[in-house]
Amino acid sequence: MNLSEEADRLQGLLKSHRHERRRHDTWLTVQIARNKDRPRTSEYIEFLIDGFEELKGDRLRADDRAVIGGLGWFDGRAVVVVGHQKGRTLDEQTRHSFGMAKPEGYRKAQRLFALAERHRLAVLTFVDTPGAYPGVAAEEGGQARAIAETMLTMARLSVPIVATLIGEGGSGGALALAVADRVLMQENAIYSVISPEGCAAILWRDAEFAPQAAEALRPTASHLLPLGIVDRVIEEPRGGAHLNPEGAARRVHDAIAEALRELEELTPRERRLLRRERFRKLGVWGGEGLLP
Amino acid sequence: MTVTVEIARRGTGPQERRWVCPKCRSDHDPAAVKENLSVCPACGFHQRIGARERIAQLADEGTFVEYWGHLRTLDPLDFVDLEPYPERVREAQGASRLTEAIVAGTATIAATPCVLAVMDFGFMGGSMGSVVGEKLWRAAAAAADEGRPLVAVASSGGARMQEGALSLMQMAKTTCAVDVVNDARVPFVAVMADPCTGGVVASFVSLADICVAEPGALLYFSGPRVISQTTREQLPADFGSAERNLVLGHLDAIVPRAELKDKVANYLRLLKGGGQLDGLERRAASRPRGGRTRRLARAASTRVAAAFKNPGSESLGGSGPAPGSSEEPPA
Known about the structure:
Chain A is of the alpha/beta class. Helices cover 48% and strands 18% of the residues of chain A.
């Protein structure tokens, strides 16, 4: 028996096992992130915010139930809270469009951000959406611009912004509420440029390859932390946040509280410039040495 | 470059290369079509063009200087679908003779200096990954630093899946780049060429000071396939077309390719034409406080106070001076 050949074979086997394992783990996280019993934005508001006053409407034409927001107290300071709301029962999910916001939802977020800026209130956002609502009316009502302007509004705020990814962070629809000073992510949340199914349909030409696509997209917190896309991973109770919502909320509270304390040390101008700098650095490229 | 060249046989003679318009099916000499800015001479169909051809059409001859071409695409996720990402990039580079899906640099457009960034749909669908985002950032930063307007020609399928969430982050990064340009009060004009979809429309492009599209360009965030799969909605036949977007109020204008260069230059001149006002502002700022602005403000507050004292004498929204108050109180 050729020992080195045997070693190579075993190495190969080990590699493919690790691969299998990683695919399994990633797909499992996707399932947990989408679990319908997972605590929603409304539950985190209940746990973390005292005296929440919901503020509705975009002041233009509608109130999008896929985005909820309002005022309340977090650890003794008044804050503005905005988040995607998915709902749990089919009835709720339908009412909240499964957390898929339309332009009116993003415009509601924008006007609440402006309110926060005017009254010097910190902003907390909760991200939990499969993506922006893909409909003709949403598209023709300016979905692309609504998302872009929401991001720009966040980029320009001088008050502290802490975003927390609590479930699905689906594409531009999620990012629109996450241009923050600190982006926190729960252990079993996902954040991705496209859904695994969508990616599989395009690159594998078959949505059945979603687990493969999920693995390739690296959408989990442990993948995103080293890339600087998220600043902190929030641990969840064993088995996932849905098994112990209160325990999950406690940890989310502590992470947000710490982030806010750090941000409150900065001047408004510093916060704005550092936020801009945070996003400028994102990306991985080479060739810097090739030219001055 | 994604020029569609179909070869039509003409009788039994030697093969002649003809360009067949995909819209009106008329056939033309390819050189004549190119001479016509790659627009069908018969029906005006705007063929997709690559970044190099676009730059040649827009920039004054010999003025374009490319920057940031040394930035190289990496494979941070070890992304493999049916093919590894680095191989897809190499193929795209070979086919397009570009290093990435955007070419950026400085140029003059009809004698107006600017920073010009042009996307190329032929390079992996013009998708935006880390290098595209970084080049756009640098283009914006250079525009802001040098006070040169920024002109972006976008043609893209959206964010690049092979760089995962890093591509998604380029939406936020390029949005912040617009913030930099806006802060510097530098004009930013975006041209949307067919097709312009996904994360690119939902970030920097839609935030331009002036946003125009080429005739027939398809523009949307979510595509028809995604919409019909998710919501089973019936889509209008012209869904996402530039023409429909213009009617819906999402565009400043639709500009045929033949007019694009002059139009863009004109926008830039107009947006830069407020220099006089800038001077006045500076003088006002350097003047000791208590000038005309202050006097006017005091006059206004006197009017309001008078209205409060004599309810019914004048509505607060009234434009005339309230009784008993003078337009210019003694300084």
